[in-house]
Amino acid sequence: MAASTIHSAEDARRQARRRLPWMVFDYIDGAAGQESGAARNRAALDAITLRPRILKDVSQRSLSAQILDQQSDRPFGIAPMGMCNLSAPGADLMLARLAAHNRVPHVVSTVASTSMEEIIAEAEGNAWFQLYFSGEGSGTFKLVERAKFAGYDVLVLTVDVPEVGRRPRELRHGFKMPFRIGPRQFLDFALHPRWSLTTLFKGRPVMANFDAEGYDFDRTESRARADWGTLSRLRDAWPGKLVIKGVLDVEDARTLVSAGVDAIQVSSHGARQLDSAPAPIEKLPEIRDALGPDFPIFFDSGIRSGEDILKALTVGADFVFVGRILQYAIAAAGEPGLEQLWDVLSDELSIAMAQTGLTTLDDVGLRE
């Protein structure tokens, strides 16, 4: 399929579903439990309406935004996603180039399939590093030092995965990293020859941030030892900006501010961890009210359009991160597909701004 056939995130998802092996698509697309949390996220976003305004001169509109004292060309960036090169070889670097061209943050996952050094170079510095605390923590703090040495200025600690959520679609396919190839997986790959041959030629994706660290990362290893003391150690060890991702509770948000973090990210991990988690978009205004108008609050989970982005900004977010729909676009049509979907999101946002009487994003929100 050509990139020009992508007119929405759903177009990209539909094409990705045809192109990817079932195991890979369900890893990217799946959510925890019965996936009612993902449905709840979508329903909550759909329930929010925007306020149309008329007879305002909206002929000149700007999508630029401020994030952690830096100017961004868009009010949305790239969320951390593990093993992106499963969607297509080189996907991590496609995302990095997109970040460079649009001056937006690309949040690089601990379990990225390209090294953090390569990604920040390709992103021309427009990269943050996302961190999981794992096991007893020694490997985690090695990654902190490595990120510091690589030139990262912003660290994003993900705190909503004390144990990896059960995602039945993954489990049914026997998804593991590295791949374990049995008869079912062999058939799956054989029925998707374009993906399989390209991946074979380029080399199977690996978790690239662990080759030189002297330890292996076990995706299923418990992360349950992280506590407020861990956060204190991390705050002392990290000289740059520290963002905490995966916040859904007002009390937790207040405590994080007291602990000296620089921003929080309201998120349910795209409903991939706790099926019964509340819809983050419903918690966002509560947390904004609790923290006041000036503390930086970011948002992700369930974003599918430019209108969704404007909704999140309207109810309290300073900046929005977009995740798996970018992988759909890459799987559907490679880098041109990614660029096409990014333009679609930008156009949808710009049109929604015009419909609601906005020329800039400075006046968005409920922070009068």
UniProtKB/TrEMBL annotation:
Organism ancestry: Bacteria, Pseudomonadati, Pseudomonadota, Alphaproteobacteria, Rhodobacterales
Flavoprotein among keywords: yes
Similarity comment: family membership: Belongs to the FMN-dependent alpha-hydroxy acid dehydrogenase family.
Cofactor(s) annotated in UniProt: FMN
Active-site residues, as the UniProt record annotates them: H269 (proton acceptor)
Alphabetized UniProt keyword annotations: Flavoprotein, FMN, Oxidoreductase
GO biological process, one term: aerobic respiration
Name the UniProt record assigns to this protein: L-lactate dehydrogenase (Cytochrome)
Amino acids binding FMN: 80-82, 109, 130, 158, 245, 267, 300-304, 323-324
Keyword Oxidoreductase: yes
One GO cellular component, as annotated: plasma membrane
PANTHER family linked: 2-HYDROXYACID OXIDASE 1 (PTHR10578:SF107), S -2-HYDROXY-ACID OXIDASE-RELATED (PTHR10578)
GO molecular function: FMN binding; L-lactate dehydrogenase (NAD+) activity
InterPro entries: Aldolase_TIM (IPR013785), Alpha-hydoxy_acid_DH_FMN (IPR012133), FMN-dep_DH (IPR000262), FMN_HAD (IPR037396)
Organism, scientific name: Ruegeria conchae
Residues noted as binding glyoxylate in the record, renumbered to the chain: Y27, Y132, R167, H269, R272
UniProt xrefs under SUPFAM superfamilies: FMN-linked oxidoreductases
Domain FMN hydroxy acid dehydrogenase: 1-368
Pfam families, sorted: FMN_dh
